[in-house]
Design a protein that fits this description.
Blueprint (H helix, E strand, L loop, with lengths): L2 H22 L6 H8 L3 H7 L3 H13 L6 H8 L4 H17 L2 H14 L4 H24 L8 H22 L6 H13 L2
Helix pairs in contact: 1-2, 1-4, 1-7, 4-7, 4-8, 5-6, 6-8, 6-9, 6-10, 8-9
Length: 194
């Protein structure tokens, strides 16, 4: 088999597995199903990935590697005229960075529910930069006393949690689900009163 055929099968396998894992979760799909959907044998799956967990971790890492902080959005956070705008714009950065890919959000959710140990270092490696950078942008608001009794990192993690949970809430409540800006506005008001 040529190297390009080997790479093509592996890329196709990762792409198909990403879609299936995002839709059905780790426990909801078998390597046999993934192999069939990718048009390869199950032996090919195990040639590339000795365990299903290895395939899942590769899929997750591939998807996480697509996360990029946009400088224009970070500049909006830095130029915020007030704390409320800073929180709104921080949420926007998180939403644009993570929320643009519902499949990534679902992979991360399934990871924490079904796979845990093997994926936690991956999640830390790829999400820490996002959290730390945004915490740094919120730190001046805390130092000026506009946000009190809260750690900037905890604040960013809370906004990340809103991005993750919003997708679930919208699917459950559909028409009644509050819009993202209403959620962040309610959150900002709560934080302001701390």
């Amino acid at each position: 088999m040529s190297t390009s055929g080997f790479t093509g099968a592996k890329d196709r396998l990762l792409s198909v597995a990403a879609g299936l894992f995002a839709k059905y979760g780790y426990d909801g799909i078998s390597t046999r199903d993934i192999a069939a959907a990718a048009g390869v044998s199950e032996i090919t799956v195990y040639r590339h990935y000795p365990r299903k967990r290895d395939l899942y971790c590769s899929v997750l890492e591939c998807e996480l590697s697509k996360i990029h902080l946009r400088g224009d959005l970070l500049a909006h956070v830095a130029d915020s005229p007030d704390m409320r705008s800073a929180l709104d714009r921080t949420y926007e950065v998180i939403e644009q960075t993570l929320g643009h890919s519902p499949s990534l959000l679902r992979l991360i959710q399934f990871s924490t529910l079904e796979v845990r140990g093997d994926v936690e270092p991956l999640l830390r490696r790829y999400l820490t930069q996002l959290i730390e950078v945004l915490a740094g942008y919120l730190k001046p608001w805390i130092e000026r006393g506009e946000l009190r009794d809260i750690q900037p990192r905890s604040l960013v993690l809370s906004l990340v949690a809103i991005v993750f949970s919003r997708q679930v809430l919208e699917s459950v409540f559909q028409e009644d689900a509050p819009k993202a800006d209403a959620i962040v506005a309610a959150y900002a008001e709560c934080v302001r009163q701390l």
